[in-house]
Design goal:
By secondary structure, this protein is of the alpha+beta class. The protein folds into three domains: 317 residues, Kelch-type beta propeller (Neuraminidase, 6 Propeller); 196 residues, Potassium Channel Kv1.1, Chain A (2-Layer Sandwich), CATH 3.30.710; 62 residues, Serine Threonine Protein Phosphatase 5, Tetratricopeptide repeat (Alpha Horseshoe). It is built from 24 helices and 34 strands. Strands 6, 7, 8, 9 and 10 form a five-stranded antiparallel β-sheet that branches. Strands 15-19-18-17-16 form a five-stranded mixed β-sheet, with no helix packed on it. Helix 18 packs parallel to helix 20 and helix 20 packs antiparallel against helix 21. The longest helix is centred in the middle third of the chain and has 17 residues.
C-alpha cells in the first residue's frame, strides 16, 4: 500500500490565506489589542456596545456649512473636513472635530490652501494630509469650471499648507475628479475618475518621501475595473479594493482587488456564494468604503435610485459579504450619497452627504463602533486537522494500486450520509458486542477503520474531502486570473461534482456546479459537454446544451475546430436541439435543492452534536460533576490545544476525562455551551455560562479569544434585575470580584424589586450579608 504524494504547497496556501490574520502587523485592533489577559470587564459610563451608531455633535452653520462631495480624514483623535459644496458654491474651508469632546472649530493655518473644490481626494501619510485634484470653479454662475491635477500637503504639526507644484518634476496625471486615492509604502496612488469628457481607469503614483518626487503612470494587468468615477478605495495588506461606482452602462456591484506588488487586478469572484447566502450590496455610486481589521465596510451611496443606510461588510479572508445589524438603541443615520468617512480607533466616522433630495445636505457627524470580536477559526482548525493527519481513525482505500487517504470518522460522518452509513456498516461488522450507551461507541485502539472506495479517484476524493472539512473549494480548483478554471481544472471539478452526488453532500454539489457553470465559455463548452455525457451528469449536460444553442453562441461553436472532432451522435443532438430550442423538453435547471440553502459545516456539526447522528461515533466521555457527556476526540483536539495535548499524552484507558474550567468545576449547562462553541462556533449563550467561560480565558487554548470576547460583551450589557441574583451567585462561586461588585451595586439600585423575588430568599447567608453591606454603605 502506498500513501498519496504529499501536497504541502497547497495546504500552505490554504493555511496562509486563512491565517494571515494571526500576524499582528497586518491586523486591525480586533486581534492585536486583545492579547492574553487583556480582557477587562467595563461597567463604566464609557462602555459602548459594538455595532452601535451614535450621533455626535453637528457642525453649526457659523463654523461650517452643511455639505457633500467633501473629504474627511482622521489624525490624532481629530476629524478634519475639507472642501465640498453646500448646494450654492464650492468650498475650501477647513474644519476640525475633536473626538473626545465632540466640538467643532475652523482650522487656523498658514500658507495658501487649495482653491474651492469638490470630488477631490484626501489621504493621511505620517503627519500630513495630501489633497489631490477635484472639480473647481463657480457653480452658481457656471463659470471657470474645470478639473484639477494639483497636489497639496497640509502638515498637522505646523498647521501649514504647501503646494507641491514646484516640487514635482516630470509629467502630471490628467486632471480629474471623483477618483480614488490611497497610500501604500510611501506612495500616493491615484486611480480612475472623470476628466470632464470621459471616465478614466488609469493609475498613477508619486513617492511622498523622495527628494525629487515625480508622477509615474502604473502599468496594470489582469481583470481591471471598467472606466469609473464616484467610487471609494480601501487598502488591506498589500492590496487595494474598489467597489462599484459610476461606469455608465457597465455599472455593476463587482469588487476588484489590485495587488500592488504584481500591479495586477483581479475581480473577486462570487461562485462560492450559494443561493440564499448573503449577496454583495447593490451596485451604487457616491458611497463610502473603509478598511478595519481584515474587513471592508461599505456605507451609503445611491443604489439604483435608493439612498442606502445599511453597513455592508466584506471579509477579505472568507470572501463573504454580510449586512451588519445595528445594536439596539442605535441612532442610525438616514441614507445618503456623496458623504465621507474615516476610521479612528475602533470606530467609523461619517460626516455630511446629500440626504432625502438633491438640495438637502447634512452637517451631522455619526460614529459607528466596529465589532472587535476575533473571527471564528472553525474552518482553519478543521483544515489544519486534515492537513496534519492527527487523530485519524479511518482510512479510505482508493483506486488501483491502493492509495490510502486518512481522515476522521466524526467529521466525514457529519457531512456525508453516504459515508456515514458506510463507516457504520463496516465498523459493526468488526464488533463482537455493543458498548453501553454512556460509554464511547467508536473506539479504534489499534488500527484505524479501513473503508474501501475502489471506483473513486484519489485526486478528486482529496478535493471533496477538503470541502467537507472547510466548506471551501480546494485552491487547486480555483483560478485567480479572472478567466475561470482551466480545462484540466474543469475536468477535475466535474469528478468532484460526481462525488458530491454520490456522497450526498448537497453543499459541495451546488458549489462545484456553480464554479463549473461560471467557467464555461466558447472554448471549453464542448469539452465539458462530452465529459458530462461520459460521467452521466444530466444537469451539467443540459446546461452545456442550452449554452451552445444560444443565438450569440451557436454559430461560433459549430464553426470551431472542436466541433469537427465531436462524435457524430453528439453533433446530431446539438443540431436538433438548436432547431427545437423554443420547445425545451428538459426540466428547469434550478432543482428543488437550490430552493433552500444547503447545510453548512456549522449546521452539520450542530446536528452531529445535538442529535443522535453523532452518537455512534463518540470515542471519549467527558465527566462534568456527576454527568457523562459523550464527545468526539478529533473535533475537540482540532479546536482546543488543551484537549489536543491531553489526548496525545494522558488519555486514560477508560476514555473518561474529568472537566474543570481552570480550577473551577463548571455547571453542566455552562459546559454544554462550551461544547456548542467547540463543535460549531456558537457564541450565543446565557450570561451565567459566559461567567464561567470568561473566568478561564486561556485554559482551553483556543486559537484566539473569540469566545471570551463575546462572553465579555454579553456580561457587560446583559446583566439586569431578572438575572442579577443568579449572576451574583455564580460570580461568588468562581471568586470573580469585579462581577460580584457590579451585581451588588445593581441589586442596591433596584432592591425593592429584588427583595420580592423567590430567588432572593434562597441566597446563602454570606451573600445576604454582602447585600446588606452595600445597602448600608449607600445609606451612609
Amino acid at each position: 500500500m502506498a500513501s498519496p504524494p504529499s501536497d504541502e504547497a497547497s495546504w500552505d496556501e490554504v493555511e496562509e490565506r486563512e491565517s494571515e490574520s494571526r500576524d499582528g502587523s497586518d491586523l486591525g485592533r480586533d486581534e492585536v489589542e486583545l492579547g492574553d489577559g487583556d480582557l477587562t470587564l467595563n461597567f463604566g459610563p464609557s462602555f459602548q456596545p459594538v455595532n452601535c451608531w451614535r450621533k455626535l455633535s453637528s457642525c453649526e452653520e457659523f463654523v461650517g456649512a452643511k455639505r457633500s462631495k467633501h473629504t474627511i480624514v482622521a489624525w490624532n483623535e481629530k476629524m478634519y473636513v475639507f472642501g465640498g459644496d453646500n448646494g450654492r458654491r464650492m468650498l475650501n474651508d477647513f474644519l476640525v472635530s475633536h473626538i473626545r469632546d465632540c466640538s467643532w472649530a475652523r482650522v487656523v493655518f498658514t500658507g495658501q490652501p487649495p482653491a474651492p473644490r469638490y470630488h477631490h481626494s484626501a489621504v493621511v501619510f505620517r503627519n500630513s494630509m495630501f489633497v489631490f485634484g477635484g472639480y473647481t470653479g463657480d457653480i452658481y454662475s457656471n463659470s471657470n469650471l474645470r478639473n484639477k491635477n494639483d497636489l497639496f500637503e497640509y502638515k498637522f504639526t505646523t498647521s501649514q499648507w504647501i503646494n507641491w507644484e514646484d516640487k514635482i518634476t516630470g509629467a502630471l496625471p490628467p486632471a480629474r475628479s471623483a477618483h480614488g486615492a490611497a497610500v501604500f509604502r510611501n506612495k500616493l496612488w491615484i486611480f480612475a475618475g472623470y476628466d470632464g469628457h470621459m471616465r478614466l481607469n488609469d493609475m498613477w503614483a508619486i513617492d511622498l518621501v523622495s527628494d525629487q518626487p515625480k508622477w509615474e503612470q502604473i502599468p496594470q494587468s489582469g481583470d481591471s475595473p471598467p472606466t469609473c468615477c464616484n467610487f471609494p478605495v480601501a487598502v488591506v495588506d498589500d492590496s487595494m479594493y474598489v467597489f462599484s461606482g459610476q461606469s455608465g452602462a457597465k455599472i455593476t456591484n463587482n469588487l476588484y482587488q489590485f495587488k500592488f506588488g504584481q500591479r495586477q487586478w483581479m475581480r473577486i469572484r462570487t461562485e462560492h456564494l450559494l443561493r440564499g447566502s448573503p449577496c454583495p450590496p447593490q451596485r451604487r455610486y457616491g458611497h463610502a468604503m473603509v478598511a478595519y481589521g481584515r474587513c471592508l465596510y461599505v456605507f451609503g451611496g445611491a443604489a439604483d435610485g435608493i439612498l442606502d443606510n445599511e453597513v455592508h461588510c466584506f471579509d477579505v479572508n472568507s470572501r463573504m459579504w454580510s449586512v451588519i445589524q445595528p445594536a439596539e438603541g442605535s441612532e442610525t443615520p438616514c441614507g445618503r450619497v456623496f458623504h465621507s468617512a474615516a476610521v479612528w480607533g475602533n470606530c467609523l466616522y461619517v460626516f455630511g452627504g446629500t440626504i432625502d433630495s438633491v438640495s438637502s445636505r447634512s452637517g451631522d457627524l455619526f460614529c459607528f463602533s466596529f465589532s472587535q470580536f476575533p473571527k471564528c477559526t472553525l474552518v482553519e482548525d478543521f483544515a489544519r486537522l486534515l492537513r496534519t493527519e492527527q487523530f485519524c481513525d479511518v482510512h479510505f482505500l482508493l483506486s488501483s494500486p491502493t492509495v490510502i487517504i486518512k481522515a476522521h470518522a466524526a467529521v466525514v460522518a457529519s457531512r456525508s450520509p453516504y459515508l456515514r452509513h458506510k463507516i457504520i456498516e463496516i465498523y459493526r461488522q468488526q464488533q463482537t458486542s455493543t458498548p453501553p450507551r454512556d460509554h464511547p461507541q467508536f473506539t479504534q485502539n489499534t488500527h484505524p477503520l479501513e473503508v474501501p472506495l475502489p471506483e473513486v479517484s484519489a485526486e478528486a476524493f482529496n478535493m471533496a474531502l477538503f470541502s467537507m472539512y472547510t466548506d471551501c473549494i480546494h485552491p487547486h480548483l480555483e483560478n485567480n486570473s479572472g478567466d475561470g478554471m482551466t480545462a484540466q481544472q474543469m475536468l477535475l471539478m466535474m469528478e468532484v461534482y460526481k462525488l458530491a452526488l454520490l456522497f450526498q453532500t448537497k453543499r459541495l454539489e451546488l458549489l462545484s456546479m456553480q464554479y463549473i457553470e461560471a467557467s464555461i465559455n466558447l472554448e471549453n463548452v464542448l469539452l465539458v459537454l462530452c465529459s458530462a455525457s461520459e460521467l452521466k451528469l444530466a444537469r451539467m449536460r443540459e446546461f452545456c446544451m442550452r449554452f451552445i444553442v444560444r443565438d450569440s453562441n451557436y454559430r461560433k461553436v459549430i464553426m470551431s475546430s472542436s466541433f469537427e472532432k465531436l462524435d457524430r451522435s453528439v453533433m446530431v443532438q446539438i443540431i436538433r436541439r438548436q432547431q427545437f430550442r423554443s420547445r425545451p423538453t428538459s426540466p428547469d435547471l434550478h432543482s428543488e435543492l437550490e430552493d433552500r440553502v444547503p447545510s453548512s459545516l456549522q449546521d452539520d456539526l450542530e446536528a452531529f452534536l445535538l442529535s443522535d447522528i453523532g452518537r455512534p461515533f463518540t470515542d471519549v466521555v467527558l465527566q462534568v460533576d456527576q454527568h457523562s457527556v459523550p464527545a468526539h476526540i478529533p473535533i475537540l483536539a482540532a479546536r482546543c490545544s488543551y484537549f489536543e495535548a491531553f489526548f496525545r499524552s494522558f488519555m486514560p484507558e477508560s476514555r473518561r476525562v474529568d472537566i474543570t474550567f481552570g480550577k473551577t468545576p463548571p455547571t453542566l449547562q455552562a459546559f454544554n455551551s462550551l461544547l456548542k462553541f467547540v463543535y460549531y462556533g456558537d457564541v450565543h449563550m446565557p450570561s451565567e455560562d459566559c461567567l464561567y467561560i470568561f473566568s478561564a480565558p486561556n485554559f482551553f487554548g483556543f486559537r484566539n479569544l473569540q469566545l471570551h470576547c463575546h462572553s465579555k460583551a454579553r456580561l457587560e450589557k446583559d446583566i439586569h434585575k431578572e438575572n442579577v441574583l443568579p449572576m451574583l451567585e455564580a460570580a461568588d462561586n468562581i471568586n470573580m470580584e469585579v462581577m460580584k461588585k457590579h451585581c451588588l451595586q445593581l441589586i442596591a439600585g433596584v432592591f425593592p424589586s429584588i427583595v420580592k423575588m423567590p430567588y432572593f430568599r434562597n441566597l446563602k447567608r454570606e451573600l445576604l450579608l454582602d447585600i446588606a453591606d452595600i445597602l448600608a454603605s449607600q445609606m451612609e
